[in-house]
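wait is this the right file?? whatever heres the structure
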């Protein structure tokens, strides 16, 4: 794992290179954000070749801000890939100016690749 961020309002992750992690980022926020909440902010990072997902977002009320990040991955031959794996329907992602790239170097299913996958669990 690259980093784990639990209940980390206002955390800043800036100018990093994550490579060959199982999960580059694991986040958890258990309570609904209040007024003036500053979400964890990820900017100017590179996420390359993750073993599972770049972001494993597990909290019932996660809220993340992503800016100017680069995500690069080889498509797995057996199944697709998503960069953001989200376990709660309450999760909010504020994403802008990010680059998502897949390279299919083997027979695979690039059509099942997605930037994000929500699992639609309500609360925890």
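ok assuming it is, sequence goes like this
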């Amino acid at each position: 794992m690259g980093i784990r961020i639990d209940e980390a309002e206002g955390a800043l992750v800036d100018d990093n290179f994550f490579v060959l992690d199982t999960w580059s980022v694991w986040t958890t926020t258990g309570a609904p954000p209040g007024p003036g909440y500053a979400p964890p902010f990820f900017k100017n990072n590179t996420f390359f070749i993750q073993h599972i997902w770049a972001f494993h977002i597990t909290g019932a009320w996660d809220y993340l801000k992503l800016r100017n990040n680069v995500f690069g991955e080889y498509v797995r031959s057996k199944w697709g890939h998503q960069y953001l794996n989200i376990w709660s329907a309450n999760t909010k992602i504020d994403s802008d100016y990010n680059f998502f790239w897949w390279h299919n170097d083997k027979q695979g299913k690039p059509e099942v690749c997605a930037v994000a996958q929500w699992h639609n669990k309500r609360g925890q």
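Residues 3-118 form one domain. so i think its the right one actually
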